[in-house]
From TrEMBL:
Name this protein carries in UniProt: Uncharacterized protein
Domain of life of the source: Bacteria
Length: 121
């Protein structure tokens, strides 16, 4: 799990833009955004977890790509309940032409296109 160091919201200022991180906190959906909360700190979340949609107010372990802009946000890869065993975050393997590969993806229709999304985006 070294690709996703487990951090607190206080530690995010020392992390480079687009680095992957894992955080634990309270997951909540609001009309204008979804956030992860630790104490009085909040981190806006972009997109939904890949394999599980946490219920409102659930304590989760969530991982994704940190976007160090104004405001700082987390591009969510996936999540699990905080009390669950920590799963190994799924990474898309490096692919080469002609290489057989099996991926688990979500497919969404966007206009006339079908877009496939892996757990690590």
């Amino acid at each position: 799990m070294s690709d996703y160091p487990h951090l607190t919201l206080n530690q995010l200022t020392a992390i480079a833009d687009r680095e992957t991180v894992m955080l634990t906190g309270l997951y909540s959906r609001h009309p204008d955004q979804v956030v992860l909360t630790q104490g009085d700190q909040r981190l806006p979340l972009l997109d939904l977890p890949f394999s599980w949609l946490p219920p409102q107010g659930c304590t989760v372990r969530i991982w994704g790509e940190l976007l160090q802009g104004k405001p700082r946000r987390l591009l969510v890869h996936d999540a699990c309940h905080a009390s669950a065993p920590t799963p190994e975050p799924r990474r898309t393997p490096t692919l080469r032409a002609g290489m057989p590969v099996t991926l688990t993806v979500h497919v969404n229709n966007v206009g006339d296109e079908q877009v496939a999304r892996t757990a690590d985006r």
